[in-house]
Amino acid sequence: MQGFFGFLKWGLIIVSIVFFFVLLSNAQSSIHEAAAAAIACFGVILARLAQAEEHRLAQAQENKKQFEVIPQTGEKHKQAGASEKSPAIARAGEDEQVYILGNRAVHLDGSNSGVFNAQEVNYSWALKTPDGSSATLNGSDTVTPSFIPDIQGAYEATLTLTVKTGEAPASTSYSHTDTVTITAYD
Predict the structure, then answer these.
(1) Could you report how far apart the first and last alpha carbons of the chain are, in Å?
(2) Residue 79 and residue 114 in contact, taking contact as beta carbons nearer than 8 Å
């Protein structure tokens, strides 16, 4: 895709220059000159837009390199924050306030958790509900579980991220937890 925007950028510059000279050579009034200048400016603007899009795509590609695919789970895990000394950094997400609207689910997200050099990655979520709630967690062993808040109050979701490093029999397990609070209102 980046090659396309590079081609587009240079193509627009060349087309703008050609139109500029064609119109300039046939210019019999200031209207032709103004049109030629406008077309040249338009070409430069489009080239700049293509250059900005090319830069955005390059940045997105660089951000994509921060993720590692763990073959055992097929999930993506961000490396940020994890290291050899702390191979598991759980990040349950930001606290939120939600309104109870029918059966609308709240989706939790542990995808910003950090994993370093792991042979196996396990997510385990637990949900502490307000007294009287019958809400349950769906997908408690996934990166992005969900639940439906059924009454007002604070719902605390705790993510425990466990990783195994090294080859068996010398593998080592590391765990880290993080909690997010979802406050539900009517």
Answers:
(1) 47
(2) yes
The pair phi, psi for residue 12, each rounded to 5°, is: -65, -35
Tens digits of per-residue pLDDT, 9-48? 666 677 677 666 666 665 555 666 666 666 776 677 767 7
Residue 107: CB atoms within 10 Å: 11
CA dihedral 56, 61, 63, 67 (to 10 degrees): 160
CA distance linking residue 126 with residue 141, whole number of Å: 9
Q: Three-state DSSP class for 119?
A: coil
Pair 151, 185: CB distance under 8 Å? no
Q: Using an 8 Å Cβ cutoff, are 67 and 29 in contact?
A: no
**pLDDT (0 to 100) of residue 156:** 97
Give the global pTM.
0.55
